[in-house]
């Protein structure tokens, strides 16, 4: 599925929720309208609303740091969601958010890097350790692997390719 990026304002504070298996998610709506100049005045066009959901460890950070009216940039996967109402079939555009941030055009932001928890990298995998050749007289004689506590350690005498 293709990724789409939207820029708009939050219509309400994000709501933090938890599934039955304790997975956290936050829901919010992003809205925007096209503004057009009419003489000396600006006229707002029709408003577009997109319901958004962000999953996992990013959800509580979205809920605690973003609020109604904030201008945000969201990127993720969009789809149409159909549902029935007393007025007949309805369709909403929804997004599963992969990335979100406040627009620096409208907000002052202080960035604080969070500590990783659990030691897992992207998609739950262990982070890859960089490998570099061990030099001796200008030639690679073996390969070493970086260990966070011990530094670089020899692994074997053959290159890993």
User: How far is the first residue's CA from the last residue's CA?
Assistant: 33 Å
Number of helices: 1
Q: In order across it, which strands form the biggest sheet?
A: 1-3-4-6-5
Can you summarize the main beta sheet? 5 strands, mixed, barrel
* Helicity level: under 10%
- List low-confidence stretches: 122-136, 138-161
**Beta strand %:** over 45%
Structural class given helices, strands, pairing?
A: mainly beta
Rounded to the nearest angstrom, the radius of gyration is 24 Å
The total beta strand count reads 9
**SSE order:** EEEEHEEEEE
Q: Write down the overall geometry.
A: globular
Mean pLDDT: 80
List keywords for this structure.
161 residues; mainly beta; 3-stranded antiparallel beta sheet; 1 helix; 9 strands; 5% helix; globular; disordered C terminus
